[in-house]
Amino acid sequence: xxxxxxxxxxxxxxxxxxxxxxxxxxxxxxxxxxxxxxxxxxxxxxxxxxxxxxxxxxxxxxxxxxxxxxxxxxxxxxxxxxxxxxxxxxxxxxxxxxxxxxxxxxxxxxxxxxxxxxxxxxxxxxxx
Length: 128
Fold this sequence. Notes:
By secondary structure, the chain is an all-beta fold. It is built from no helices and 11 strands. The radius of gyration is 14 Å and the shape is globular.
């Protein structure tokens, strides 16, 4: 049984930083995309960032426009991904979900329906 477990959420002031981590178990995701989505109350789940396997031991990172330059995603090993969030803004407040794609794709999946496995979510709250 595949499980994704997130950690690292919390409360931070605007301009501060947080680091989220996600660990997957139950299968190996070395050749698949792992990423992060977020969902604020009353809003759709939206893409934040992802790391896609491009062959061998190489990965490429992709970001939403709203997080590019402030967030950094890293693939720590085959089944772990982290998200360093700097310069946090109140609009970054949301539940953040780790996700893993069960298929190898030529481009990074940015829609929630394209991901097969999800964590339970971790709350990130940014105060103004």
